Amino acid sequence: MDFSDYVPSVSVDCVVFGFHQNQLKVLMLKLKHLNLWALPGGFIENNQSATIAADKVLKDRTGLEGIYQQQFHVFTDPERSQTSHIEQLISNDVLDKDVLGWFKNRFISIGYYALVEYSKVNKPEPDFLSEKCQWVSLDELPELMLDHEEIIKRAYVRLNQDLYQKPVGINLLPEKFTMPELQALYETILQKKIDRRNFRRKILSLNIIIDTKEKRMGSNNRAPIVYKFDKTKYHQVLKEGYHINLF
Amino acid sequence: MDFSDYVPSVSVDCVVFGFHQNQLKVLMLKLKHLNLWALPGGFIENNQSATIAADKVLKDRTGLEGIYQQQFHVFTDPERSQTSHIEQLISNDVLDKDVLGWFKNRFISIGYYALVEYSKVNKPEPDFLSEKCQWVSLDELPELMLDHEEIIKRAYVRLNQDLYQKPVGINLLPEKFTMPELQALYETILQKKIDRRNFRRKILSLNIIIDTKEKRMGSNNRAPIVYKFDKTKYHQVLKEGYHINLF
DNA sequence: TACTATTGTGTAATAATGACACAATAGGAT
DNA sequence: ATCCTATTGTGTCATTATTACACAATAGTA
């Protein structure tokens, strides 16, 4: 295994959020033969930007390209670099012992959060350290490697804040969705109940969703209207941000 | 010059904002014998976090400790690493040519913005590359090294956004200040005029400033009330953020 | 004492928000 | 068919926040 084409000391970690069954999920890797989980991550090639490196991580794990990503924090605590899990992987013959030299370095990790439509990820792929790649509920996290729990917490805080400045639905929901589904997403992320009618009014006032004139049938109650995002207006709003009042 | 105690590939750059004469200023360094300016920056020692490294940069340039700092972005474009300015400094005998090896590396730079009370910075100190350290108006930036102009722009955008989520006055204004002064600060950062009376109402409703019962005398008009921040409430609001409405 | 410049204070019209009630309807039960 | 259930679509009213103003107060100066 050759690490010489990577930028030293720097890594990238991705917190991939998905929304399923009214829960926020994170894509996680289970280390081979260990009861320890990790975030999808990687290193930066010498001629790559970190964004491109994160794109590659996302592509490799989810199979999808062009996933929405947002750099949110860099983790630089010198104590965050530990190698006990690598040493265990080596003693389990998962890794060759000559990789230890690379991992013994201190790493500063650039955190990205990514938003992806849950159902689009058909086959999450583990990497060379892991035996499983799967969705885990944000509120049922298993034991995590290094500071990955802190990274997830911070990603979530940032996602929460970002929700007040820009829309996120287009990345987390399928192309067509109903108002109750959109509301469930917001309630899940914000962790609070929102009045149905006030939510609708607010969302519609943003002018970023369009009534498709379809209805979502199949439930034994009034069928909700199916909406889709107005991509033009959505991206316009995303770029400008909400100018939520101060003055 | 020995760089062996620094983390490879990673640097720190600080955008230090100050407020003076109704203008937002940035602390800049002028490279020795060159007509080129740079942000205060540095490297991370092997046992330091980036935050501590930024603290040191801020201390070394301003003489002040405990300056408010906020990590805002990491700059990772592989094209951002250039050495032409270093080579010029070497050919001008400012630097020894054996430093070139270190600077030839690609650097990923962690951007911090810092807020400081302008008048507290008595004697800005240049570093080993520079002959001057001084305040420069944000809208009159000289020619800057590398991608430092982009770094400043992004810092400013972030400061702008942050203003909608948390108060900033305590870091940029002197301990005692008047309502018109606070308003001028907001108008400068947001680059828009705010109605005097509405501004006052909004600020007072946050409950983070206290009437000192003093007046600022000396001008031939009605003397404005002198306020100070209620540090307890200020930091409480800072921590929680404004929960500016969405729902 | 009057004048100037600017500050402190108040108020009315408009818009946004929060807290509700009721009609509409898809699917299933009778 | 008709009724029932669960849930959605729509509307309304009281309250609060915002916008756009007018006028009185006052420190210094003429």
What class would the helix/strand composition of chain A place it in? Answer: alpha+beta
Using the 3D structure, state the CATH architecture of the largest domain in chain A: Alpha-Beta Complex
Rg from alpha-carbon coordinates of chain A = 20 Å
- Number of H- or I-type helical stretches of chain A: 8
Share of helix of chain A, binned: 25-40%
Question: What do we call the CATH topology of the largest domain in chain A?
Answer: Nucleoside Triphosphate Pyrophosphohydrolase
User: What is the count of structural domains of chain A?
Assistant: 2
Bin the strand percentage of chain A.
25-35%
Mean pLDDT figure of chain A: 95
Protein name (chains A, B): ADP-ribose pyrophosphatase YjhB, NUDIX family
InterPro entries (chains A, B): NUDIX_hydrolase-like_dom_sf, NUDIX_hydrolase_dom, WH-like_DNA-bd_sf, WH_DNA-bd_sf, WHD_NrtR
Pfam family, one (chains A, B): WHD_NrtR
Domain Nudix hydrolase (chains A, B): 5-159
